[in-house]
């Protein structure tokens, strides 16, 4: 079905990409195929020259394509490439605008895997990064002549910090760079649409709220229409044959598909695409409910005598509350942090909450970031990211709030 931009999120989430007609599946069908047929040599030859349709499933698959259409619609973008993981999406987004000699400025309040790519993997390819606090001023101070990309998370991990997206976009664009936003914690286009606030690229770990049940991995890169590539030599060099000349408005999306899927082979499996598309159908309901539960738990924990600092952008006392009100809608997200005296004892006593290093599940998951997700980062970096030895990160699920509260209460002792 053709997406209708006038429809509400909830309508688009269940209707986009679903075929209509006699005998059609209700829902997105799984195309379990590695290759697709041609009827003539000419068709095959033209497909190999243009790579626009279906030939080989590393490049494209109708199930993955239907998911991509749904993601593009929900994020309010122009094009999406869906990939095997969030990590694949991050790498693809960076490599789409950077090559050896180029530079990235990133917020230091960052998902550990992204920090790993920026600090350890991209330098092997000659791409350097500077990690700075999450403000336009700090980012401006770190910009260099060769900076091609500014990277931020809409809700930082795990501190829940909300960047000034418009400010970051202005700084990036003034320096001839693009702004990429990892919007995983905002759900696909639901709590926020960074493209509407000046971002050029939006990435997701679909493993989290898109899948929504802790059962599948995936990632995506969505681009808008407004990005300016005219100051990036990757796109402009080569005269008549430059990528920008040949691909026009599709240049950025084309390069992302070419890198992430065609060349690096980080392709999403059709069965995973099916589960992710199905997950998106209930994302609005889940994230609304999870945000409500997270807010009420954050309020309760904030008054609990055995609990230290509580971090949640929905609390009026949060340093990020004003920016959260500006950039988030429909809730403040499903993740909060709180400090307990003795994390090991607390975690071992839990009966309902589970110790799992994941997010966005239908079940409530907790981790101790200091020793796990952020354990490999130097201590000052961990502290800068809002992680102390007492911090617990909680991704709120769909259980009843009174049961979660009772479990936390008994575990606090
Ligand atoms: C999980 C996560 C990723 C990485 O995604 P994978 O699907 O695990 O590869 C990237 N960014 C954020 C914010 C995440 O939470």
From TrEMBL:
MF GO annotations: cysteine synthase activity; O-acetylhomoserine aminocarboxypropyltransferase activity; pyridoxal phosphate binding
This protein's UniProt keywords: Pyridoxal phosphate, Transferase
Required cofactor(s): pyridoxal 5'-phosphate
Highest taxon listed in the record's lineage: Bacteria
Gene Ontology terms: cellular component: cytoplasm
EC numbers, comma separated: 2.5.1.47, 2.5.1.49
Residues bearing the modification N6-(pyridoxal phosphate)lysine: 208
A Gene Ontology biological process term: cysteine biosynthetic process from serine
Family listed: Belongs to the trans-sulfuration enzymes family.
The protein's name in its UniProt record: Uncharacterized protein
Classification lineage: Bacteria, Thermotogati, Deinococcota, Deinococci, Deinococcales
